[in-house]
Design brief:
Layout: H1 7-14, H2 17-20, H3 36-44, E1 62-69, H4 84-95, E2 104-116, E3 127-129, H5 132-145, E4 148-153, H6 160-166, H7 168-171, E5 176-180, H8 201-217, E6 223-229, E7 247-253, H9 259-269, E8 276-281, H10 292-296, E9 302-307
Parallel strand pairs: 1-2, 1-9, 2-4, 4-5, 5-6, 6-7, 7-8, 8-9
Antiparallel strand pairs: 2-3
């Protein structure tokens, strides 16, 4: 059974709650622009690249745990319920039960930086960017605490690559990765909340090629690159998604419901031959919520868990 992971997000976005909770009007920096503060943070990053050492995301037997949401509001997920430092402490606590001997559990902030809207806006794309001033504290916190930051895109009617390029200034930081959310990639006549979005492999491949070039040009460590999915139709030709050197590619299987429903969704869409596998847990919508032990027993094995 397929179940949407984002019904509450649809309602919140449709009502404009992400905006009223503190996200200002869209910010669209030019492609390639790098603010001085972002450059300073990137320059301060350790030469080895990633928190905990090394240059590959899942090296050192890492297991990733994340909080998902946007800045300034808890309506779209647990991440925004607190400031970044408090969120980090919560992620660490949530991740402890998943750790196994010899593993590192690496905390991740998954921050929705382009938020789907229920209204078209002045540009007609049914989404808005949150302000840089709301993103920078998460970059700073990632470096302060030794965590990753994952920028999540809900692009509405705009293609993923166009939106991703607006966030190049942040993606030039070695700790910052990218997540694509096809649920919110709408067709030209669709709006968020009225249909479940989709993306073709060709569009994903354009984004991954651009991100891999960005990492190589800037001599960055491996980038975390996540594709969210809970229906086969969301990436109908997923088998054509290409692997890229320089990217740790994760298929993150979402969907709330009973454990049986969630496992059925996972079995239907998981492609472990192409991707490292991810899985989402919902604090409010999962009944009952699966334990860390139950998640670790899933096969094919999961190496990235997020909480919403």
């Amino acid at each position: 059974m397929f179940v949407s992971r984002g019904k509450l997000s649809i309602v919140a976005a449709a009502l404009g709650l992400a905006v009223t909770a503190g996200a200002p009007a869209p910010v669209a920096p030019a492609a390639g622009e790098s603010g001085p503060r972002a450059a300073a943070v990137a320059a301060a990053a350790p030469a080895s690249g990633l928190p905990g050492g090394g240059r590959t995301v899942f090296g050192h037997r890492r297991f990733l745990t994340a909080y998902y949401g946007t800045a300034g509001t808890g309506i779209l997920g647990a991440l925004g319920e607190t400031d970044p430092d408090a969120a980090f402490r919560r992620i660490v606590r949530a991740g402890r039960p998943f750790q196994r001997p010899g593993e590192q559990v690496l905390p991740v902030f998954e921050l929705i930086v382009t938020v789907a809207d229920g209204i078209p806006g002045t540009d007609g794309d049914f989404s808005h960017d949150i302000a840089r001033s709301l993103v920078q504290p998460y970059i700073d916190a990632a470096h302060r605490h030794g965590a990753l930051l994952l920028l999540d895109l809900q692009p509405g009617r705009t293609d993923f690559l166009t939106v991703a390029k607006r966030w190049q200034w942040a993606l030039e930081d070695p700790y910052v990765g990218l997540a694509l959310d096809p649920e919110w990639r709408m067709g030209p006549d669709e709006a968020p909340g009225q249909a479940t979005g989709r993306v073709r492999a060709a569009e994903v491949n354009r984004v991954s090629a651009w991100l891999a070039r960005l990492a190589a040009t800037n001599k960055l460590p491996q980038k975390l690159f996540v594709l969210h999915q809970f229906r086969e139709s969301m990436i109908p030709d997923a088998g054509k998604v290409r692997r890229r050197d320089g990217l740790a590619m994760v298929q993150h299987v979402d969907g709330f419901g009973t454990p049986a429903q969630k496992l059925a969704t996972y079995a239907a869409v998981a492609r472990p031959e192409q991707f490292t596998m991810g899985f989402k847990l919902f604090y409010d919508e999962d009944r009952p919520r699966m334990s860390a032990g139950a998640v670790r027993r899933i096969r094919p094995a999961v190496r990235f868990v997020s909480f919403q």
